[in-house]
Amino acid sequence: MISKSKYLKFIKCPKILWQDKFAPQRAGERGAQKFGAFQDIRPLALQMFEVEEGSLSKKSASFYNKDLGVSCHADFLKSNEDGSFDLYLIKQTVRVKEEYLHEIAFNRFVLNSLGIEVKNCFIVHLNSDYIKNGELDKAELFLTRNITENLEDLSQNICESIKGAHEVLKEKQEPHMNIHEKCHGSRVCRYVNHCWAHIPNPSVFDIYDLKKKLDYYKKGIVSFADLKANDIPLTEMQVRQVDFYLEDKKPYIDNEGIKTFLNSLNYPLYFLDFETFQTQIPIFDNTKPNQRIPFQYSLHILKGKAKARVAHKEFLAKESRLQIRELAERLVKDIKDDNGSIICYGSDFERACINKMAEQFPDLAPRLKSIASRLVDLLSVFHNGYVYNKEMGGSFSLKSVLPALFPNHQTLNYHALEAVQSGEDAPAVFLSLKTLSPKQRKKMRKNLKAYCKLDTLGMVEIYFYLLSV
Ligand code: SF4
After folding, report:
1. Is 179 in the pocket of ligand 1 (CB under 6 A)?
2. What is the DSSP track for 175-217?
3. Among 288, 298, 386, 419, which is disulfide-ready with 254 (CB 3.0 to 4.6 Å)?
4. Ligand 1 pocket member 177 (CB < 6 A)
5. Is the CB of 17 under 6 A from ligand 1?
6. DSSP per-residue letters across 9-33
7. Mean pLDDT score of the chain
8. Euclidean distance between CA atoms 396 and 209, whole angstroms
9. What pLDDT is recorded for position 338?
């Protein structure tokens, strides 16, 4: 039976469907949904639809056509007076994705094949402009879009794709498919470890900021040696990445570049990092679906060039209520109204958070805007190629740079942290705090603080490294 999910897998890549059936052991771990951050919006959205006594309308109904070997699920099927139906699909996002159009087109096909005439197709999704104020207002929280006209082109190949999917599931032989763009789409395919096993490490896919990587791969230019042998035009940074790997060179240091960067800084130095969470359905008043909400920061303050002069401050919101205001107030207290540079790693993120708070709290806006204007991006040191060693490969994230610069550092080790080891863990852990026992909660709050503190400590260590070279 070809269900909606099998159909979607087939149109993404027939090999996913085949491996799911014949070689599921090849699949890697799915990105774990940790600590219950997931919200199922369907029950809430379904409350908007009435099914009157005696009506043919149906909520959450399943259908299958045995002859065609297809099945589908309709979130809501509304009967019209002329005997036709309108089909509704509920989605967790704030916009309509192409994948949803394929899904609803497939559902309509199955229903039509059963003699159920579908007149209109709707996608119900979250309204990114909705601001929660007390009880959730479902009529405002959700937007309903008629996408019937968008389905015409997609509908033409459904029959053929269903046939193709049946064939794949019958075939003992694995479909012959080369790697393609969709392997690393919005979600990385679970079979990349298997399908990409022939790609050397490192390869053309690891080159920093290189465009059209798959085109090179298709021409047989895969390894760093291939790039070199084929005289592929590369930027200075990319050439450095290739040469450092092939020739095992010592770390590259651009002393002039580093000097310029360091000279642009003013003491005291503030090293700042935020953590934020997002929920599809706003859980606090005055917030919107999917809004990034800062709940934590770590701040190392360096008053002079000696390590002994480092102080640490931090803020971690209570899990029970929204504390953006408290966070903003504490931030303007912790960061003095002096001329000190505020160093972040990828400062666009912190700048956006601070500017958003300035919008929300006009009385704090002058101080917050002044903080935003003093931000300096430590990542630029690596983007500009002032420091490079081959362990960085093609990534300049803090998690790549720290182990590359300090391979044996005892403290700067994210893997040694408990429970919170990444920027994805932190919001999920924060959102789970309310569900924990007081003892567990205390422990997790400690873990959250340790994680955020390590990010800013890492920046401090990079700063001292730059001073030392
Ligand atoms: S990794 Fe790529 S080729 Fe392999 S199953 Fe997934 S999408 Fe298909």
Report:
1. yes
2. P-----GGGBSSSB-TTHHHHTTTS-SS-GGGSTT-S-HHHHH
3. 386
4. yes
5. no
6. HHHH-HHHHHHHHH-GGG-------
7. 94
8. 11
9. 94
How many angstroms does the Cα of residue 181 sit away from the middle of ligand 1? Answer: 9
Q: Which residue has the tokens 């080369």?
A: 178
Q: Give the C-alpha distances (Å, rounded to integers) separating 233 from 199, 211, 237, 246.
A: 21, 11, 12, 17
Residue whose CA is at the smallest distance from ligand 1 atom 3: 179
What separation in angstroms does the CA of 104 have from each of 46, 61, 77, 335?
Answer: 17, 14, 12, 51
Q: What are the structure tokens assigned to 139, written together?
A: 């009529």
Task: Examine the pLDDT at 265 and tell me if it is beyond 80.
Answer: yes
Question: Residue 364 Cα, ligand 1 centroid: separation in angstroms?
Answer: 50
Q: Which helix (H) or strand (E) holds 369?
A: helix 365-373
Q: Which atom of ligand 1 is nearest to the CA of 179?
A: 3
Q: What is the arithmetic mean of pLDDT over 156-183?
A: 95
CA of 173 relative to ligand 1 center, distance in Å: 16
User: Which amino acid is present at 346?
Assistant: G
Distance between CA 67 and CA 70 in Å, rounded?
Answer: 8
Kindly indicate the confidence band of residue 67, based on its pLDDT and cuts at 50, 70 and 90.
very high
pLDDT at 19: 97
Residue 448 vs residues 7, 26, 330, 408, 429: alpha-carbon distances, Å: 41, 33, 18, 23, 8
Give dist(CA 197, CA 44) in Å, integer: 43
> For a pLDDT cut of 70, what percent of the chain falls above it?
98
Q: Say if residue 14's pLDDT is above 90.
A: yes
Dist CA 24 CA 18 (whole Å): 9
Q: Write down the pLDDT at residue 30.
A: 59
